[in-house]
Amino acid sequence: MCPVVNCGGEADPPGWKKHQRAPTGGSVYACVMITVHHLQASRSQRVLWLLEELGVPYQIKLYKRDPRTRLAPEELKKVHPLGKSPVITDGDLVIAESGAILEYLVEHYGDQAQGESAHLLASSGTPEQLQLRFWMHFAEGSLMNWLVMKLVFMTIPTQPMPFFVRPIARRLCKQVQRKLIDPNLQTSMAFIESHLTQHSWFAGERITLADFQMSFAVSALLSRSDAAKQCPALAAYMARLEARPAYQRALLKGGPVLMSA
Ligand SMILES: N[C@@H](CCC(=O)N[C@@H](CS)C(=O)NCC(=O)O)C(=O)O
Fold first, then answer.
1. Which of 18, 102, 125, 156 gives the lowest tally of CB atoms within 10 Å of its CB?
2. Nearest CA owner, ligand 1 atom 20
3. What is the pTM of this model?
4. Which residues sit opposite 90 in a β-bridge?
5. pLDDT tens figures, 54-82
6. In 90-100, which positions are buried (b, 16+ CB within 10 angstroms) versus exposed (e)?
7. Which of 82, 117, 152 is the last residue of a domain?
8. Ligand 1 centroid vs 148 CA: distance in angstroms?
9. Assigned domain for 108 exists
10. What is the pairing mode between strands 58-63 and 34-39?
11. Which protein residue's CA is at the shortest distance from atom 16 of ligand 1?
């Protein structure tokens, strides 16, 4: 049974939603817990990390990847028709797509956070806001496409296939990586490295939502590109993220960020 609390007209406490008006005045709150529909080793780790930083209560519903195809289970389509993770539910709301989820969480729960986590957005019209917006879109609109392609073309030759096809598959996949994917990753990586050499965080000198959105792509880049491992600013940035207690708590609750090869 969900507990109920009477908050007498104060701001919504974190994790509680206004339920009904109390006859004696004030408001009655019921705990409508945010649920993160978390696919094992996936982008939804960034949502867990944000919730930990904000200090908002939530629960995790874990979905295991198909061990053969590594795809999400069909069950996730019952939560949202796209069947991808992350998806969150908050009361009657179902929200998909990492960027939309991160923005929703900060807009609705950000003011309940403490310290630097209370200021994860940038002021309107500032250069910081432009940067924040750029990295929010770049992460999923550009960089992740190349990183997913890299994973796909690394994985194809390891899949079951007739023995005489495997050398052809291997050669073809290597060519695609060398001619198309790796040069694009290299360009992105050099751009990120140069940016992080000049700034501590993606939108400037303080942590913002852009860092949550970019965190998964940076992990994937470091794991899928040998050249990225040689980038000192990128490595130092990742170490800074991993040192944050909230990031560690998210890892403990959600498991590793990436699938093992
Ligand atoms: N742009 C989307 C991508 C969502 C996405 O593709 N998620 C992956 C996990 S990293 C997924 O659900 N994959 C399982 C599948 O495609 O079956 C977002 O950022 O939310």
1. 125
2. 97
3. 0.89
4. 93
5. 999 999 999 999 998 899 999 999 999 99
6. beeeebbbbbe
7. 117
8. 10
9. yes
10. parallel
11. 71
